[in-house]
Write a structure and sequence with these properties.
This protein is mainly α and 180 residues long. It has one domain. 60% of the residues lie in helices and 0% in strands. The protein contains seven helices and no strands. Helix 1 crosses helix 3, helix 1 runs antiparallel to helix 6 and helix 5 packs antiparallel against helix 6. The longest helix is centred in the last third of the chain and has 33 residues. The protein is globular and about 50 Å long.
Length: 180
């Protein structure tokens, strides 16, 4: 699984892509919601503490959960009277789905190998044959600290330019429509 840093970078990029204007882009609540949605599937790690079973990379890591998350955010935002609630729901669903994609593309060494990416349509575990991201050791040992730091640095190298491109695209779009 990628680090929270990698998932947050993907969330930042999607926030910039979904922001329509300066008000959306600089809205800290929208930003926090989209970035949190990008990391939210890993909350399934908490259930292991509750019942002792490994639920990681199961249903919360599927396209169905991403769709459900987007719909729930859109519905709550609409009820709250949020402007552009559809765009916010779409951004949060896409951020959740980005988590699935990044986990699919990482070098997984923890059982079960892979994730239930197509849940609820298929309960199988899927993993890329060509991982792009390095594995994060979840043991918390000092020995893994250097490997985890290298994995985070690699995520920044790969995803940092994506964030920069998304922000640049947003800025150009704002300049073109005259809202900057």
């Amino acid at each position: 699984m990628p680090s929270p840093v990698g998932h947050a970078l993907a969330g930042l990029a999607l926030h910039a892509i979904a922001a329509r204007d300066h008000q959306d882009f600089w809205d800290a609540r929208r930003l926090a919601l989209v970035v949190c949605a990008a990391g939210a599937p890993d909350l399934d790690l908490l259930w292991q503490w509750v019942d002792g079973h490994n639920h990681h990379q199961a249903q919360s890591h599927g396209v169905g959960s991403a769709l459900l998350a987007g719909l729930l955010v859109a519905g709550a935002a609409r009820l709250a009277g949020t402007l552009r609630w559809q765009r916010l729901g779409l951004a949060c669903g896409a951020a959740w789905l980005s988590h699935v994609v990044l986990d699919f593309l990482n070098a997984d060494a923890s059982l079960p190998i892979g994730l239930m990416a197509l849940w609820p349509f298929d309960a199988g575990y899927y993993k890329s044959q060509w991982p792009v991201l390095l594995a994060i050791d979840r043991t918390g040992s000092w020995a893994a600290l250097g490997d985890n730091a290298l994995a985070v640095a690699w995520e920044c190298v790969l995803l940092g330019p994506l964030v920069a491109a998304a922000v640049r695209r947003w800025h150009r779009r704002c300049v073109l429509v005259g809202s900057s």
